[in-house]
């Protein structure tokens, strides 16, 4: 999409389907004039005389066929709907342009016809995310805030919503701007020094330059350390439930969902396909996959089911390994345990309500000891005893899931989290440039060399907020939005 701001766009802003109200949005230099061709205020008078940010009762009518400018005295003809209309004048609107919103009844035909009438009166249908793109181009939002608008709409847990709102308020941008200011400050001194290099005038001592860069480097490390937590909160975690047949995998899925979603039976090999559901566990969205029990397959269908289980395990980030805790630990359980030791996992000893509990945490740990896990991974191994039947131990399991997913660091105290890969990559490349600059200083290279690295870091940070951007980057970001936002 090219960056065009001189025309007026319109779109249905509410979801498709029946609803109490449905909103058509118009934005651009001609928004009021174009809307006035189809909107008649009940109190009379021209749309352009409406007070900004006030709702008016109006009739929405069809634009007379072929009419350039409809004669307002013809009102009453072909009323489409009764609506509330509001105008928000530039620059005090979402897009920063003149905006008109027509709040109709929420019916597909009404909204499509109103949109159509606006197009016939001269508006253009908006591209996905074009309202927000205009807000960005008019300086109402920066790119991190535009992305936060999308994250707000897509939030699936309260935690992800709060995180999106924090970013929408501009906290990430503030951090980035703070760092950019520090870069600009040292760069200005460095470059001033370059102009006077022959006169031996020093504007910035090497030691000072080094300490500023080291401090920025620490800030970048701190921010990057939040990126895993940020991603998990924003996107959720693909979680696979695996174990031997009859261990209680489907029962656990049902218990976590609090519904009887999957078939549970005493016949081993009940689940044959992968069943997917989402569940909010202590603020983290789990994309839960219940799978076929792992064993020597009895037939072709089961064999395919087990192949899918293995595939799901490989793609999952978290594994819930269910073992029937009322029986002895078998070699098969050990084998499955070893196969997922490289992932974040929780070992769930199920059926705690039954007598004859024989397995304990030490048994699990001794098997894992053979797996040569790294320390960090070992910290992410948890064992919990539950009963999917009575619900005993489920709260403890939920807490463990959160601990294993977020790691020993748990939630950072910092309210600013890096949530997107795009931001992470830009911070990483800024940090690489800082590292290069520090090497250049260490090796006593010329100030020019250091300045090149600092400018590169500055540009990486600029990509995050959009002070440095290209149409391609914008296209990529706004393509994710829906039409009307
Ligand atoms: N007593 C008791 N029985 C349980 C518990 N969890 C599951 N069961 C029983 O164990 C049997 C198997 O449960 P499922 O949930 O179907 O087991 P699964 O692991 O999904 O089995 P497959 O799909 O065949 O691999 C059923 O008879 C359940 O009622 C539990 O916590 N306590
Ligand atoms: Mg099952």
Which descriptors apply to this entry?
single chain, 485 residues, alpha/beta, Gyrase A, domain 2, Four Helix Bundle (Hemerythrin (Met), subunit A), Rossmann fold, 3 domains, seven-stranded mixed sheet, six-stranded mixed sheet, flat, binds guanosine-5'-triphosphate, binds magnesium ion
Query: What structural class do helix, strand and pairing data support?
Result: alpha/beta
**Ligand catalogue:** guanosine-5'-triphosphate, magnesium ion
Strand order in the sheet with the most strands: 3-4-5-6-2-1-7
Number of helices: 17
* Number of strand elements: 13
Radius of gyration: 30 Å
- How widely separated are the two ends? 16 Å
The fraction of residues in strands falls at: 15-25%
CATH architecture of the largest domain: 3-Layer(aba) Sandwich
User: What average pLDDT do the residues reach?
Assistant: 89
Question: Can you walk through the features of this model?
Answer:
This protein is an alpha/beta fold. It has three domains: 9-142, 2-Layer Sandwich (Gyrase A, domain 2), CATH 3.30.1360; 159-226 and 419-466, tRNA modification GTPase MnmE domain 2 (Four Helix Bundle (Hemerythrin (Met), subunit A), Up-down Bundle), CATH 1.20.120.430; 236-406, 3-Layer(aba) Sandwich (Rossmann fold). It is built from 17 helices and 13 strands. It has helices spanning 31-36, 108-120, 130-137, 143-154, 158-168, 171-195, 206-225, 227-235, 249-257, 300-315, 331-339, 361-369, 375-379, 394-406, 421-442, 447-465, 471-478, and strands spanning 9-12, 19-27, 39-41, 55-61, 79-88, 99-106, 124-125, 237-243, 275-281, 284-290, 318-324, 344-350, 381-385. The chain has a seven-stranded mixed β-sheet with strand order 3-4-5-6-2-1-7. It has a six-stranded mixed β-sheet with strand order 9-10-8-11-12-13, with helices on both faces. A hairpin with a 6-residue loop joins strand 1 and strand 2 (19-27). The chain is flat and about 85 Å long. The two termini are 16 Å apart. The relative contact order is 0.12. Bound molecules: guanosine-5'-triphosphate (GTP) and magnesium ion (MG). Magnesium ion (MG) is lined by residues 249-250, 262, 270-271.
